[in-house]
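Need C-alpha cells for this chain, all 495 residues.
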Amino acid sequence: MHLRAFSPPIALLISLVVLAPSHTVANAQATSLEIEELSPFETIDSAVDAGSFGPHVDLSSSGTAAGGGRGGSGVAASGRPPVPRVAQLRGASDAVAEAQASSGVAGDNSRVARLYLLSKNTYRARCLDGSPAGYYLRRGFGSGASNWILILEAGGWCFNAKSCANRAKGPLGSSKQWPPTSNVQYGGVGSTDSAVNPAFHNWNLVLVKYCDGSSFTGGYGKLRANAETGRALYFRGHWNLQGTLQDLLTRHGLNVGKQMLVGGCSAGGVATSIKCDQISRWMANYNVTTKCFMDGGYFPDVVDEDGKWTMRQKVQQMAGVHDMGRTGFNAECKRAMKKTNETWKCFFPEYNLQFARSPMLIVNSLSDYKAISLTLAPRPKGTSDPLLRCLRSSYQSCTPAQVKLLQSFSTKISTSIGKLVKMRSVENEGIQAFTFSQSAHCVVGEEMWQKVQSTAKAFSSVPPPSSSSPSSPPLATSGANGAPLATSFVSWYRS
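Here are the C-alpha cells for all 495 residues:
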C-alpha cells in the first residue's frame, strides 16, 4: 500500500498513515451500544404497534442487553448479549444457501440476494410510509462463509415533512415495491468476481435498504402526521439499522461470524461515519472484528457560493423532523455538542469522526460533484448552476473566480480530513484516507475501483483551457506513484 504522511492543505491526499492493526474494539465486555434509546413502551403508538415487541436485544445506554420481550434477563452468563431463538423463521432458501456455503459451492445464491422484511412489532423498524424495513442478503461461500459485508444503502435525505411525504411514495420511503430477490448491483468490494475482488468476493453481503431519509438516524417513535398532506410518517431510521443487525444475529449466524466490513456510499457513507462505533462495540460482544469505510460521504459544513449556510440549515431542519439526536448520533459527540446547542453537527463527518473510536477508511474525491452540488452550488431541481457547468466542462468554461472557489472547496475537505487523521493518530485509533482528484462520487462499489488512483498533485496548478480536453480534465490526473484504490483498500483492511 502506498503510504504518505498528510501533506499541507493545498495538496491532494493519497492515503494516510496506518495507525492501528485490525482489531476487535476494546472493552469487549461492554454489553450495549452508547445509544440513548427511548423505552419501547413510551415511544411506540400503542394504537398502531399494539402488543409485545417479542424477543430483542436492547441497545440502550444502560449497559445491559435485554432479551425475551418486555422483561429481559440482562446479560447472558457468557458475557455476551443473549441472542433470541427464532430459528423457526428461517426459510428453505436459507438452508440451501448455507449448505452451499459450507460445501464451498457458490451456486446461484452467491449472486442473487434475497429480501428479508423485519417484523414491525419485534424490531420497531418501519419505512417512512409504515411498511416494514428490510435488507437483502447474498450468502457467502467457502472461506468467506463466516465473514460479512454490511452496506448501508445510499439515497439522499428528506429534510422536512413535505419532502418525506413525497419520498414515502417510492422505494426510498417504502418497501412495497422492493422485489423478493435482487442481483445486488454493488461492484468493486461487493463483486462476486474473484478477478475484480479477490479479498471479499465470497463474503456474505448485506444491503441494508434505506427507506427513512435520515441516514439511519431517525429516532422518533410515534407517528408524525404531515399537516399539508395528511399522511402519517414514521421516522425510525435508527431502529431500521438496529433491527437489521438483530435479525442477522438471530436468523443468519452473524453471532458466530469472524469479520465484518461496514460501509456505504453518499448518504450511506454519512450513516457509516455516524454508526460505525455503535456497530463495532456491539459486534465486539460476539468477537466479530469490525472495520468501516465511508465512500463519497464527506459532505463538508461550508457556506455555498452565495454565502449562505444552505446545507447546514437543511441538516438542522432534518435533525428536528427525524429526532436524530435522540438515538442516532455518537453519544460522545452528542454530549459535546449539547453544550453549545449544536447536536445537529454530529451529522457531519468532520465533526462526528472526532469522537469515533473504530478503524475507518475515508474514500473521497476532493472535487466530488455531488458534494459540490449539495453544499457549494445548491439549486432547485430542474435548474443548472454555472459552477456545476464549469465542473462538467473539465474546467474549460471556468472563470478565475470559479476556479478559486473549487480550490477552496478542495482545501476545506483535505484540511478537515487531515485534522481528523492527526487527531486519531495521536490516539492510535486507526483512521486512514484515500482521496483523489477525479470529480467522482462513490467508487468503492464500482468496477472502476481498480482504476482510481490517489495523487499528490497540487490543486493550484490548474492548466489553462487550451491544455485540457473533456476526456482528460486537468484535476483528474493521477500521480505516477498513486496506488489503485482496490490495492490500497485491501492493504488497509488487512493491516
